[in-house]
Amino acid sequence: MSSLSIGLVGLGKIARDQHLPAIQANPNLRLVAGADPTAGIDGLPHHASLEAMLAAEPGLDAVAICTPTHLRYAQARLALEAGKHVLLEKPPGATLSEVAALVELAERCPGTLFAAWHSQQAGGVAAAREWLAERRIERVAIEWKEDVRVWHPGQSWLWAPGGMGVFDPGINALSVATLVLPRPFFLRQATLEVPANCQTPIAARLAFMDADEAPIAADFDFRQTGEVIWEVRVETDAGRLRLTHGGNRLLIDDEVVVDAPTGDGNDEPSRLAAMVGQEYAGLYARFAELAAAGRSEVDVAPLRQVADAFLYGRRESVEAFEG
Amino acid sequence: MSSLSIGLVGLGKIARDQHLPAIQANPNLRLVAGADPTAGIDGLPHHASLEAMLAAEPGLDAVAICTPTHLRYAQARLALEAGKHVLLEKPPGATLSEVAALVELAERCPGTLFAAWHSQQAGGVAAAREWLAERRIERVAIEWKEDVRVWHPGQSWLWAPGGMGVFDPGINALSVATLVLPRPFFLRQATLEVPANCQTPIAARLAFMDADEAPIAADFDFRQTGEVIWEVRVETDAGRLRLTHGGNRLLIDDEVVVDAPTGDGNDEPSRLAAMVGQEYAGLYARFAELAAAGRSEVDVAPLRQVADAFLYGRRESVEAFEG
After folding, report:
1. Which residues of A209-231 are buried (b: 16+ CB within 10 A; e: fewer)?
2. Domain of life of the organism in this record (chains A, B) (predicted)?
3. Domains of chain A (ranges plus CATH)?
4. How many whole angstroms separate alpha carbon A120 and alpha carbon A2?
């Protein structure tokens, strides 16, 4: 696999915390520039826009797009039409319609389009999918709960239209569930709890049914205090599977099959940082593979489930949120 | 084209008003039975369920599904797996996820799956599409306004989660716009006006941008009094196109190119009834063609745009609605 040169577009928190180290740690990738109207990264050639970066770096092979979602369609289109490979941070767009248009565009362009869902790279996910493929699903429970004040301090965009609220982490749960469960599943009922001063839910309870009528319950909550819970439990005809730690630990009938990385220390923040770091390493390994193979991979199922929840859910007004 | 035998599933208002006469008027179709847990139609063999109908009528070629949206996935699946052709009244499902699953299922089944969008059959739509294909779009304005008390008396499901409110007619506008405009378009901003006692909007203002950055404004309103307005206006580099009367009248630079059918009388209700009747005749002609050709046609773009509006729109609370 020959080395890919990559430019980072949008140099915010996720680009610095995850994309930068994941690219630098991958021997098949070379980070050559960054584009952002304001922010720069020390030691990295900087451009004010994607357009400027493409003009200045004609040999660039790929871009990773980490900008706010409403900017991504135009940027991804520009890069694809310039013949570049494109990785899109999750979610792949602000709307399903623009993601569908990008998928069509990518079919006519030489580059790879990759919609990155980091939780799909969690350590236990591939083994869970394989194990579940052979089983009959009886019941699924998804719990995805974290303290928004700890995990998203000052991220007021979460509460604006399009910010998705608790579905910003919840879409990670849906990206795991849609990948590991052997049958498609559909929303039957949903309650979205929306703070009186916000546009998006702080909590959501979702009831799905899979194509074989197995019930799937999901409980997303931003008001969790203490440790995070990122867990999927599946009861089958041949035992019980649990994915915990965002998919990084896999247990079958309470026996640990895959264990989450523990990081440099034993404290919770260090463990979680190590887990997410490995997920992004997995994303870039996958991106390099897809680019080498000349294939695109755009899984729209997680964003489609979120749109279904907004389309079909009942809204209840709850206490105003003071960040 | 050999004659197709059809069963109607869900014998509510739309089945009686539109499907029944459209099937009966088409010489290539034979209506052989109806299925509904409660309602029957005089002179038509009746079954309590789709299952019972399939068991009693093994020679049935096709079913048309007009039940409430949350029932359609399971019914369409049953019929497709029984080898039948399936027409789905609009919208094709309660959620995008179940429509996506039906599309995949139809690829593995012998029958045709057809998502029916009656406004796409309006008399001026095909000519508008052809004319616009050659033009550069500068600006689009969509107005879709009707009095909910006149057009949807007592339809309280419109205001419940999934009922879509003003998007129930608005999706007809979107089914026309996504078909006739030459470039895909994406929501950029939306305001949904939701009555204080309802879950779904009574009005919506939508601002889209097409892939060439032409602005598209849509204004949906259920609080219209007087005549309905169902109109799409397109300014192009080569003149102005107007589709009025729900797409049934086409004007180019104010010259009438296609005229709406006038019905038996000259009054407005008679004209509108004649128009919608012709649209359903067009749907069944298309269904018969697709079944003969062994092809499916499921246009998800209109429902995807509605889901995007719920996902991305700003909600404003307005005066309670008293039906």
Report:
1. bbbeebebebbbbbbbeeebebb
2. Bacteria
3. 4-116 (3.40.50.720), 122-266+305-318 (3.30.360.10)
4. 25
User: Tens of pLDDT along B9-28?
Assistant: 999 989 999 999 999 999 99
Is residue B137 a contact partner of residue B212, using CB atoms and an 8 Å limit? yes
Per residue in B86-113, pLDDT tens?
A: 999 999 999 999 999 999 999 999 999 9
Percent of chain A with pLDDT strictly greater than 70: 98
| B19 in Cβ contact with B8 (< 8 Å) | yes
Contacts of A314 in chain B (CB under 8 A): 161, 199
CA–CA dist B232, B235 (Å, integer): 10
Percent of chain B whose predicted confidence (pLDDT) is above 70: 98
Do B146 and B203 meet the contact criterion of CB atoms below 8 Å apart? no
How far A94 CA lies from chain B's nearest CA (Å)? 7
The residue-averaged pLDDT of B255-262 equals 88
A310 and B315 within 8 Å at the Cβ level: the answer is no
Cβ neighbours of A187 in B, within 8 Å = 94-95, 97
Q: What is the pLDDT of residue A263?
A: 67
Q: Which of B96, B98, B103, B314 to mutate to test the interface with A (most CBs of A within 10 A)?
A: B96
Helix axes B301-312, A301-312, angle to 10 degrees: 70
Phi, psi of A150 (to 5 degrees): -85, -40
Q: Residue B229 class from Cβ within 10 Å (0-12 exposed, 13-18 middle, 19+ buried)?
A: middle
User: Where do we find the tokens 């599943």?
Assistant: A185
Task: Report strand pairing: A239-244 vs A249-252.
Answer: antiparallel
Do A101 and B184 make contact, defined as CB atoms within 8 angstroms?
yes
Residues with Cβ within 8 Å of residue B18, at least 6 apart in sequence: B118, B276, B277, B280
State the smallest CA–CA distance between residue A190 and chain B in angstroms.
9
Q: In this complex, do A100 and B312 lie within 8 Å of one another by their Cβ atoms?
A: no
pLDDT digits (tens, 9 = 90+) for B210-248: 999 999 999 999 999 989 999 999 999 999 999 999 999
Rounded to an integer, the average pLDDT of A81-85 is: 98
Counting DSSP H helices and E strands in chain A, the numbers are 10, 15
Question: In whole angstroms, what is the distance from residue A292 CA to residue A275 CA?
Answer: 26
Q: Would you name the residues of B annotated as active-site residues? A: 90
Chain B CB contacts of A77 under 8 Å are 211
Dist. CA A106–CA A96, nearest whole Å: 15
- Exposure string over B122-150, b if 16+ CB within 10 A, otherwise e: bbbbbbbbebbeeeebeebebbbbbbbee
> Looking at the partner chain, which of A97, A164, A211 has a beta carbon nearest the beta carbon of B186?
A97
Helix axes A125-133, A167-180, angle to 10 degrees: 40
